[in-house]
Specification:
The chain contains 18 helices and 24 strands. It is an alpha/beta fold. It has 3 domains: 180 residues, ANL, N-terminal domain (Rossmann fold); 216 residues, ANL, N-terminal domain (Rossmann fold); 103 residues, GMP Synthetase, Chain A, domain 3. A 6-stranded mixed β-sheet has the order 6-5-3-4-7-8, sandwiched between helices. Strands 11-12-13-14-15 form a 5-stranded mixed β-sheet. Strands 2-1-10-9 form a 4-stranded mixed β-sheet. Strand 23, helix 17 and strand 24 form a beta-alpha-beta unit. Helix 1 runs parallel beside helix 9 and helix 2 packs across helix 3. It is globular, with a radius of gyration of 24 Å.
């Protein structure tokens, strides 16, 4: 027998999953909780709610209407958080612009997204000045300034953020509309061509918030998150909504600390003074923090930090844990809103020693609620979950982008066979943990065999004298490709570390059968620094270009 839901009555309320509903709970439970910007500004959730309404009224007063696109260029701030809510809640689309794009990429994304209004921090005016004569849709530009003074620019500024809010009412009737309406858009930089536009609806963002809340707040694990935590993002708010965490932490009514520009001294000062307990970042930001001299004066014990964006190496994990940082991994992509997995430790793993836990803390993680992950072979067939058989990671979840903006061909490629293709290679173990072993584009093919650059990086990172490492494939006339290891020594080891030390260290793993001997790099270079992308990941595309003729 088929059971059907009875037809709704004419007066039943058609509840839509809209971002505005995430804001209601903290206004009831935590109206006096604080939101902090650097060491210069703080206010309560009650005041935050009023400013969200003022921003919506202010934008409406300058012509923003439902369906318009409002772009933001700012450091991580309380104002950015206001934009996360006010702009989509009024039915407009929030475009979070990557402030580290090249001039060509910047104007491409502004025009491709068809931005109507740009809210811009005064620090980024020179970037806009360089491209403003190429605008095709931008109608007005609003300055974000700490002084409120409009500077002289070669283009017209149509007002200032705080003045816009000051002249507006602190009450706004945020409308109901279809939960599938577009809420946010941003652009992910790929290895070839122009940046790709991805977008998410209200429904997707709300469901992502609830799924992440289940994963972080609902399970007994090494790092349970609650409204009692003090949250500070160290992932840019322009990058996949800072992993969606500002929506979650606002919904929980937790104290939030926004650090502005990422400076080690300021981040650690805020950690100490505001008693930050929860953050997330990429490995390069963590490296910047744990190698900063200021960390010696700050108690970082029990600071819960999720690492994403790039693989967390065992060496870095151990180094952070020795400082008392509660470190573990999360995984996702720009196309996935982004969180797909969290490396929560199961109860029986929590009983293991800290040293034994490192393997699981560095695992890519367990799928969060409503996420289906599979690893498939080249024919699209699932491989065994045996902890060793690898394939491409494919995924289904209710918050995945449905395609790239104005790019149907790449959208079809992304969703071939009804699964979103991540482009990552990995395996699933018998506990259900996913482990990414490489990107399809980064795997090293030597003599017909594949070598995982991530595995080699993980091994090298465990050498006590290594600060950073990247492994890439470089052309080889005999083998097609061979691995090249680029190693940044720790500051005090610069004069004593040699390439042969690293080679012997890796060879020990080969002799023990951990990696094949053909996977040991013949070339190892000690370098001062390693190229990074605009969001702090290892820039392997640039590294392959830089060292192609080595």
């Amino acid at each position: 027998m088929t059971v059907r839901i009875t037809e709704k009555t004419a007066s039943a309320y058609p509840y839509q999953l809209l971002i505005k509903h995430l804001l209601r709970t903290p206004m009831i439970y935590s109206p006096d909780q604080e939101i902090v910007y650097r060491d210069s500004f703080r206010y309560t959730y009650r005041e935050f709610g009023k400013r969200v309404a003022r921003l919506a009224n202010g934008l409406e007063s300058i012509g923003v209407k439902m369906g318009d696109t409002v772009a933001v260029m700012d450091w991580d701030s309380h104002r950015y958080l206001e934009c996360f809510f006010a702009i989509p809640m009024m039915g407009a689309v929030l475009h979070t612009i990557n402030i580290r794009l090249s001039q060509e990429q910047l104007i491409y994304t502004i025009n491709h997204a068809e931005d109507d209004i740009i809210l811009i921090n005064e620090d980024f005016l020179p970037m806009l000045d360089a491209v403003q004569n190429q605008f095709t849709t931008v109608k007005k530009i609003i300055l974000i300034s700490n002084t409120g003074i409009l500077p002289d620019t070669s283009f017209a500024l149509d007002g200032e953020y705080e003045a816009l809010l000051a002249d507006a009412s602190d009450s706004y009737n945020f409308p109901d509309f279809d939960e599938n309406a577009l809420a946010t858009t941003f652009y992910t930089t790929g290895t070839t061509g122009q940046p790709k536009g991805v977008c998410f609806s209200h429904r997707q963002l709300v469901l992502h918030t609830y799924g992440t809340m289940t994963a972080l707040c609902g399970y007994d694990s090494q790092a349970k998150i609650s409204s009692g935590d003090v949250y500070m993002p160290i992932t840019p708010m322009f990058h996949v909504h800072a992993w969606g965490m500002p929506y979650l932490m606002t919904h929980l009514g937790a104290k939030q600390v926004y650090p502005g520009k990422y400076e080690p001294a300021m981040l650690l000062k805020l950690k100490a003074e505001e008693k930050v307990t929860f953050s997330h970042c990429v490995p390069t930001i963590l490296h910047m923090l744990i190698t900063s001299p200021e960390i010696e004066n700050v108690d970082v014990k029990n600071w819960k930090i999720i690492i994403g964006g790039s693989a967390l190496s065992k060496g870095q994990c151990v180094q952070a844990m020795e400082l008392g940082i509660n470190l573990y991994t999360g995984y996702g992509m720009s196309e996935t809103c982004p969180i797909l997995t969290i490396a929560n430790l199961k109860p029986h793993i929590l009983e293991q020693s800290s040293a034994d836990q490192v393997v699981f803390r560095c695992r890519t993680g367990l799928p969060i609620s409503n996420t289906y992950l599979e690893v498939v072979d080249p024919d699209g067939l699932p491989v065994p979950h045996d902890g060793k058989t690898t394939g491409e990671v494919v995924v289904r979840a209710p918050w995945l982008t449905q395609g790239y903006i104005k790019d149907p061909d790449r959208s079809e490629e992304l969703w071939a066979g009804g699964w979103l293709h991540t482009g990552d290679i990995g395996f699933i173990d018998d506990e259900g943990y996913l482990q990414i072993t490489d990107r399809l584009k980064d795997v090293i093919k030597t003599g017909g065999e594949w070598i995982s650059s991530l595995q080699l990086e993980d091994i090298v990172s465990q050498h006590p004298s290594v600060s950073e490492v990247a492994v890439i494939g470089v052309p080889d006339s005999k083998w097609g490709e061979r691995p090249l290891a680029l190693v940044v020594p720790k500051q005090y080891e610069k004069d004593s570390l040699h390439e042969d030390d690293i080679h012997e260290f890796i060879m020990d793993y080969a002799n023990r059968g951990v990696i094949p001997k053909y996977g040991v790099p013949e070339k190892i270079l000690l370098v001062e620094s390693i190229a990074k992308t605009s969001v702090g990941k290892l820039n392997k595309k640039e590294l392959r270009k830089q060292y192609a003729n080595i």
